[in-house]
Design brief:
Elements (H helix, E strand, L loop, with lengths): L4 H12 L5 H16 L1 E13 L5 E6 L4 E6 L1 H4 L11 E11 L4 E11 L4 H16 L16 E6 L4 H13 L4 E6 L7 H16 L10 E6 L13 H9 L4 E5 L7 H5 L2 E2 L3 H8 L3 H61 L3 H42 L2 H6 L4 E4 L4 E2 L11 E5 L4 E5 L5
Parallel strand pairs: 3-5, 6-7, 6-8, 8-9, 9-10
Antiparallel strand pairs: 1-2, 1-4, 2-3, 4-5, 11-12, 11-13, 13-14
Length: 441
C-alpha cells in the first residue's frame, strides 16, 4: 500500500496540470498586460534613439532602475515640434503592448512632451543653438538698410492688419514710394513654405530689373498673436530664406515683446510692422529740416571760403606789386653802377665790354621779370578761378536758385514763412522770375 501511493499521486498531478504552448502563453500575457494598463503616461529619459528610414522612431525610456522599449510610428511623430535625442527627459502617452512572437513588451507612443519645458520652447532653443553655431546670427552678416528707398518689397498677408498699418505709415511720409507686395499665409499649414518662397521670389524678380529700379529693402512679418500663431517665423526654412536674401531684410513679427528666429537672422529687427515702415521711410519734415540745416552750413562755408580766398588774393596782389618794385629798383641800381664804371673806364674796348655786359644783364633781367610775372600771374589766375568756383553765381549756374520774399527782398528759407498770395522773386543764373504763391505744401 505505501509503495503504490507515489504512483497514484504522480498520476493525479499529471491528470490536473495545464500545459500551454509558447504562443498561447505569450498571447495570454499580451491580453492581460494590455487590459491591465491600457493608455498610460510614462516619464523617462530617452536612450538608444534610432530614427528609421520609414519615419518611425525607436528608442527606450529609462530611469535609475529599469529600461522600457518604445516605438512611435511616423503618423504620430509628425506633430513633434522638437528634436528627439538621447539624454532628454520626456513624458510619453501611449499604450503598453506586447509583441507576442518575441515575448517582449513595449510602449507604443502617441504623444511626447518634454519634461519641464514646452515642446515649442524646446524646439525653438534647439533651432537657435544650431543656427547660431552655423553663423546665421553673426553681426558681420548684417547689412545696413538703405536711406529713403524708392522701392520696398513686403512679404506678409495681403488681408492682414500689418499691411494696412505699413501702407498707412508709408503713405503719410512719402506717397511716391513704390511698394511690391507678395501676399502669403503667415500662420497655419503651409505658411512657412509660402513665406520662404515669397522672399525667394522677390529676390529672383529683383535680378530682372535695371539698377535704378531694383527693390532696395524687404519687410517680412505679420501682426501679433500667440507663439503658435507666430511659429512660421521660427521655422528653419524661413530663417535660411532671410539669410540667403540678397536684398536687406527688416523683420517685423508680432509686437515688441515677441522675438522669433526671423528677428535674429534678419539685418534689422523692428518691434512691429508699423515701426518697420517708420524705420525704412523717414518723415518728410525731418528731411526738410535736415536739408535746411545743410543749406545753412553750405552758405556759411561758402562765405568763409570766399572771405579767405579774397584775403589770399589781396596778399598775392600786394606781394606781386612789391616784387615788381624790387625788380625795377634792382635794375636801376645796377645800371647806375655800370654807368659810373664806364665813366671811370673810358677806353673804347672797356666801354664795349661793359656795354655787352649791360646788354646781357638787361636780357637776364627781362627773362627774370617775365618768369616772375608768369608765376605770379598763374597764382593770381588760380586764386581767381577758386574764388569763381565758389561764387554763388556759379552755384546758380548748376541749376540752383535763390528765392526772395517781395517787396522786402528777404531770402526765403522755409515754406512756413509764406502765405497764399505772397509775391516771390526767384534769382536764376540768367534772369529772375516773379511768382505768386498759390499753395503752401
Amino acid at each position: 500500500m505505501p509503495q503504490s501511493q507515489p504512483e497514484l499521486f504522480g498520476k493525479e498531478i499529471e491528470k490536473n496540470r495545464r500545459v500551454f504552448t509558447v504562443s498561447e502563453i505569450t498571447q495570454d500575457i499580451k491580453i492581460v498586460l494590455e487590459a491591465t494598463f491600457g493608455e498610460v503616461w510614462i516619464e523617462g529619459e530617452v536612450s538608444n534613439f534610432q530614427p528609421h528610414v520609414s519615419g518611425h522612431f525607436y528608442f527606450s525610456l529609462k530611469d535609475d532602475a529599469a529600461l522600457l522599449p518604445a516605438v512611435m510610428f511616423a503618423r504620430a511623430n509628425k506633430e513633434v515640434k522638437f528634436k528627439l535625442e538621447n539624454g532628454i527627459k520626456i513624458l510619453c502617452f501611449g499604450k503598453i503592448s506586447s509583441y507576442a512572437p518575441h515575448g517582449k513588451y513595449q510602449i507604443i507612443v502617441e504623444r511626447i512632451e518634454p519634461k519641464g519645458i514646452g515642446s515649442l520652447a524646446l524646439a525653438l532653443e534647439q533651432l537657435k543653438k544650431r543656427l547660431e553655431k552655423e553663423g546665421l546670427f553673426a553681426l558681420e552678416h548684417k547689412r545696413k538698410i538703405p536711406y529713403l528707398p524708392s522701392k520696398i518689397g513686403i512679404v506678409t498677408s495681403g488681408q492682414g492688419a500689418a499691411i494696412k498699418d505699413m501702407l498707412k505709415v508709408v503713405g503719410s511720409r512719402f506717397k511716391d514710394v513704390h511698394i511690391i507686395l507678395d501676399s502669403v499665409r503667415v500662420q497655419g499649414e503651409g505658411a512657412k513654405e509660402e513665406i520662404a518662397q515669397g522672399i525667394e521670389d522677390l529676390n529672383r524678380y529683383n535680378k530682372t530689373l535695371d539698377a535704378g529700379e531694383k527693390i532696395e529693402v524687404l519687410i517680412v512679418g505679420r501682426g501679433g498673436g500667440s507663439i503658435e500663431d507666430l511659429w512660421a517665423f521660427n521655422e528653419e526654412v524661413v530663417a535660411r530664406a532671410i539669410y540667403n536674401s540678397e536684398i536687406p531684410v527688416v523683420s517685423a513679427v508680432g509686437h515688441e515683446r515677441d522675438w522669433t528666429i526671423a528677428d535674429l537672422v534678419s539685418d534689422v529687427r523692428a518691434a512691429t510692422p508699423s515701426v518697420a515702415a517708420e524705420m525704412v521711410i523717414p518723415k518728410k519734415e525731418e528731411l526738410q529740416e535736415k536739408l535746411s540745416g545743410l543749406c545753412l552750413e553750405l552758405r556759411s562755408a561758402l562765405l568763409d571760403t570766399s572771405k579767405n580766398l579774397k584775403e589770399e588774393l589781396d596778399g598775392l596782389r600786394h606781394r606781386f606789386a612789391l616784387g615788381l618794385e624790387n625788380v625795377v629798383r634792382l635794375s636801376a641800381s645796377e645800371l647806375e653802377s655800370t654807368r659810373k664804371k664806364l665813366a671811370l673806364l673810358n677806353p673804347a674796348l672797356s666801354i664795349q665790354q661793359h656795354k655787352n655786359k649791360v646788354l646781357d644783364m638787361a636780357r637776364q633781367i627781362q627773362v627774370s621779370m617775365q618768369h616772375f610775372l608768369s608765376l605770379r600771374g598763374a597764382e593770381f589766375r588760380q586764386a581767381a578761378e577758386q574764388l569763381g568756383n565758389l561764387s554763388p553765381l556759379n552755384i546758380l549756374a548748376r541749376g540752383y536758385s535763390i528765392t526772395f520774399k517781395m517787396p522786402q527782398g528777404e531770402i526765403i528759407k522755409e515754406a512756413a514763412g509764406l502765405h497764399s498770395g505772397d509775391i516771390i522773386k526767384s534769382r536764376l543764373h540768367n534772369g529772375e522770375i516773379i511768382s505768386e504763391v498759390k499753395e503752401i505744401m
